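Repro:
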Amino acid sequence: MPRKSSEERKKEIWQAAKGVFLEKGYEKATMEDIIARTSLSKGGMYHYYSRTKDILFDILWFHNETYLAINIEQGIFEKEVTPEEQQELMLDTIVEKMCTTTPDRKLFAIFMAQMAHDPEMEAVFLKLEDYFLKGLCHRLGIQGDPREYPQLCFISRTINGFTLFQNLLPHPELLSERREVVRQLIRQQLQVLFSGLESAVTTASDERSDL
């Protein structure tokens, strides 16, 4: 049997860890629990990871990058579509993310719930958020620091808040049954965001004309 690559080993570890985190809870999960679900020895595992926290961080980074890649493949950030079409594509994706429960989103919700008492997790969350916002700005052609756009940050935090709601709290159907309400909430913020971008472009154009 061919020897697994480093990337394949890590994905094996991530899959095992994800199962342990979701079944036992992150705080109760141990490295031994994860090793038991892989083909690695203890020494082999510690070649890659020495803490459950680092495994969790890598899983989250991987899914964050994958989420952006999928959106790009679906044409959400294509330059050829009109602003109105782009808004609707983004709206579809955001509402689906907010109202659907998946193991990966539940794991992210568990991670967010740990931030209140773990500064290291908070720091990783902010880096993940920055990565997401910068990627979004790049695809939308937005210049500068993404945190200069309050609506963009609000949308990001709203998605995260609803992820906690949908994946950790009882009765998630309360949210999924009210998708249209969620849609209208985000639509309003997207309209404000895109309106602000159009105004910024117009202002910049006027300033160049005055030179």
